[in-house]
Design goal:
By secondary structure, the chain is α/β, with parallel strands linked by helices. The chain contains 5 helices and 7 strands, in the order E-H-E-H-E-H-E-E-E-E-H-H. Helix content is about 30%, strand content about 25%. The protein binds inosinic acid.
């Protein structure tokens, strides 16, 4: 297999697009996003795992574009909530909820939980689809602690309540470079980029 000249990111989330573009910045192929195709798909994420949902998205974009497709499915696992919100991270506070709604829900559910029981991690599964039945999976995770209040304005989603122990502050207080260096998405997509670069040039 040779490495592609173009690859499409199978996501409609602009925050993820800008993070993944930065992570794959030195890749020897062009990185396209949903704006490159006429009717970008928005498939229902009906899987029960991050991996299943990543494959659903990557296959939908592969079928719509005919290009190699790379999807991200990610979520926050909080130990004291039994691993929630996990695969339900995007709509944890209900249909149509905002990032702020989700953060408020988590902070409320964790009211009174002591520091040592506030452990959590972000997980990311990247699915690369290169043919009708050709799927490859890359994973990344980062450990942290859920704060008792929001801190910082950078990033998106649960970033203001995720204290990354490796950085000493929340993801929303980190620069894009700092976050990408250690994040679940940085780790999964660098692995995908390494794999793609390792293929023979076309
Ligand atoms: P997905 O689009 O189904 O992968 O849902 C991911 C959801 O998890 C997002 O809507 C965010 O709420 C959350 N999430 C994923 N990655 C991050 C991140 O890097 N920072 C903060 N929240 C994230």
């Amino acid at each position: 297999m040779t490495h592609p000249t173009r690859i499409i990111l199978a996501t409609n989330n602009p925050h993820k697009v800008s993070e993944i573009r930065a992570i794959l910045a030195d890749a020897p192929f062009e990185v396209l996003d949903a704006s490159a195709i006429d009717s970008p798909p928005d498939p229902d994420e009906t899987g029960s795992t991050l991996e299943e949902n990543a494959i659903i998205k990557a296959k939908a974009f592969y079928e719509a574009s005919g290009l190699w497709s790379l999807a991200d499915d990610s979520g926050l696992e909080i130990d004291s909530l039994g691993g929630d919100p996990g695969v339900h991270s995007a709509r944890y506070a209900g249909p149509g909820c905002t990032f702020a709604d989700n953060n408020s829900k988590v902070l409320k559910l964790m009211d009174g939980v002591p520091d040592h029981r506030r452990t959590a991690r972000f997980r990311c599964v990247a699915a690369l689809v290169t043919g009708p039945d050709d799927v490859r999976i890359f994973e990344g995770a980062v450990e942290g602690i859920i704060t008792t209040e929001t801190r910082g304005t950078e990033g998106f989603g649960y970033d203001p309540i995720f204290y990354a122990s490796e950085l000493g502050h929340t993801f929303a207080e980190a620069s894009a470079e700092e976050k990408n260096r250690i994040s679940h998405r940085g780790r999964a997509f660098r692995a995908a980029g390494d794999y793609l670069r390792g293929l023979k040039p076309a």
